Amino acid sequence: MTDSVIIRTDQLKKIYQMGEVEVPALNGVSITIQEGEFVAIMGPSGSGKSTLMNILGCLDSPTDGQYYLDDQDVSKLNRAQLAHIRNEKLGFIFQSYNLLPRMSAVENVTLPMMYNKAAAGNQVEMTEKAEELLGIVGLGDRIHHQPKELSGGQQQRVAIARALINDPVLVLADEPTGNLDSKSANEIMDILHNLHQSGRTIVMVTHEHDIAEQTQRIIAVRDGLVELDNKNGRM
Amino acid sequence: MKIIDVIKVASRSLTSNKLRSMLTMLGIIIGVAAVIIMIAVSSGTETAIANQINSLGANLVFVMSSFSQGGAGGGMATSSGGLVYSDADAIANSVPHVAGVAVEQTTTQTIKYGNIVLEDVSILGTTPDFTKVREIEVEEGRFLNDQELERSTRTAILGATIAKELFGDTYPIGQKISVGTLKLTVVGVFEEKGLVSGVDYDARVYVPITLVFDKLMNSQFSRIAGDRVRMIYVTVDDKENIDDVILQINLLLSKLHDVPLESPDFQISTQQDIIQTQSATTESFRILLAWVAGVSLIVGGIGIMNIMLVSVTERTREIGIRQAVGATPQDIQSQFLTEALILSLVGGLTGIIFGISGSWVFSRFGDMPTVVDPISIVLAFGSAAAVGILFGYLPANKAAKLDPIVALRHE
Questions:
Q1: ipTM above 0.85, yes or no
Q2: Across the A/B interface, how many CB contacts are shorter than 8 Å?
Q3: What is the domain extent for residue A82?
Q4: pLDDT digits over B342-368, tens only?
Q5: How many domains does chain A have?
Q6: Using one digit for the tens of pLDDT, what is the confidence trace for A73-82?
Q7: Is residue A143 one of the residues assigned to a domain?
Q8: Residue B78: which pLDDT band, with cuts at 50, 70 and 90?
Q9: C-beta of residue B149 within 8 angstroms of C-beta of residue B209
Q10: In a domain, A41, yes or no
Q11: Residue A34 contacts B where some CB pair is shorter than 8 Å
């Protein structure tokens, strides 16, 4: 099996300037994640795991160090270029689902395609693909429901479908089960496992051990450094 | 993002808050309607003035006496003071393209009929061509004829107001009125013409000009003045030839009066000149109105900016979500700019509709002549669009600059 590298970071540093004071959030993080891995990132609040997640998600740029995503150095890109990377290579799943409230499920799922150069404009194809993905996450019968008409677990499933619509190389999940009861959480985790099984690369931030332990690999972050990188899926 | 999608997204977010969008557009609607109505009213007034002036004869050239700077004093006593009666004949006989010539000399007299006395009435001495040249119709009786002119017969034609004041319901034709020391027979009454360029055509008495020369002008003055006339009206056969006729009259009269061409003792103007002078006053009024309307457009624009800024704050999280899934700063900017533009353009179109129908209402029920100027529509719509872009830019830019991480965390 020839593994191809999806994420490679080299001495990632992020320093926030708070007036006169420099507050370091990342002190040199070097990690490599292969295609097809399911990785959990853990750490207490203030550990830098959110900052790491933001940089991995191309929502933020490192102060220093390199970040190669899918063999492309994205650490020095400008905001518009990062937006294109997010659109084409990344899929996000958030703790609070982050669906647009006045749009139906299928419209929410097609949203990333509207910003995609290759897909934008082809309404029929977009809708077909969105409906197919909603079917996969088990919402085939609710494609025209608005978020307020859906339960938390259902909303998160819409968000997963949205994350997959542009066929990303990496799915980033930020506390995907944090707002859910355990039954819905299990359903979401089942979907993520299925995605992993079908070859998706998933990086998930969580502070719940039992959720993290369902993955293959746990990276623990503390004080802006990788404290532990456990490849057998146990703490 | 495709433009059609940008427009769809923008109009969707505007229709999701209809009342707010409508109130925001109100400023633009009022501004645009005000611009159109105000320009319509002022250009309507202007057209009405021009029509009135043109109604007193078409293709008219006015030759007026003025005092020469060069000819006075010297050996040429006859050249020192303006137009004389024979100039009119000279123009009629030797200038090509002249269709008619009328002469006018005025004096002021007290007139009487029975026990009715009217003081300081303008007496206008003129020639039979006057009705033709000034396009004014005799309603009762007739106008002067050549015989009366030649013999300076004691006849008078009355303006409509004078006739009413003197005679009331009595039939005026054939009656005798006294003008100064003279007894004149009324042979005609003019139709009502009203006030044109400050001259009341209905409050005058028209007599043969020869009668003015012989009997009515102050005797001392007339001895020096001779057969001086105040004004010669020249009708030109075609609009095209007006400039040519003016030149010919200039050459002819300069030669006759023996004055240099560059400092003549007469002045020539056209109806167009008079209309332009009149327009100058309405012009400044119109500019003032346009400024007032322009200010209301700007106020409307500020309203749009205000609401867009509120909207950006309210939808910070939406902006964050869109950024996370791949909206570039430019995508976000164009979305908000499009919203501002739709508000101002829809407002502008509605304003145009209100402006046109408002102008119609003004002319229909307000007794105010209005002419909707197509340029004012283009102008108003263009400024509405400009206001949209101008005042939409700041909020759109604010939205585009939002940090996606901060925006996503916004409650």
A1: yes
A2: 68
A3: 5-100+153-230
A4: 999 999 999 999 999 999 998 888 777
A5: 1
A6: 999 999 999 9
A7: no
A8: very low
A9: yes
A10: yes
A11: no
